[in-house]
Amino acid sequence: MEKPGEMTTLSRVLERLHERGFDHELKMSDHGRLQNTEAQKIYNPEDLTIIKTYRFEGESDPSDSSVLYVLEDKDGEKGYVLDAYGAYSSHEEAGFDEFIKKIKVEDREEQLLFA
Predict the structure, then answer these.
(1) Are 106 and 52 contacting, i.e. CB atoms less than 8 angstroms apart?
(2) Structure pTM?
């Protein structure tokens, strides 16, 4: 049973992120770096920090599994990267996994993110 405020689905987490201004989805660019397509801002791994990671598993289909990385850049702007999990990765770009692994991780509590 879901407790009040508990986020158990990808859509619920994305909804809460959007409510708090995490509206920028970052995608892998042709340059092999993450890019905020709205602001045309391009990031190297050292420009970003992963502040929260969420993993979701489909109830019956492993291909429904996904991972959501919540990121903050050096200027304090926040965004996210959404990917299918494991072998079902939706990022076919060369270097995506290596890029993500190079980003510093500073796992923050949800109450800090959503306060």
Answers:
(1) no
(2) 0.79
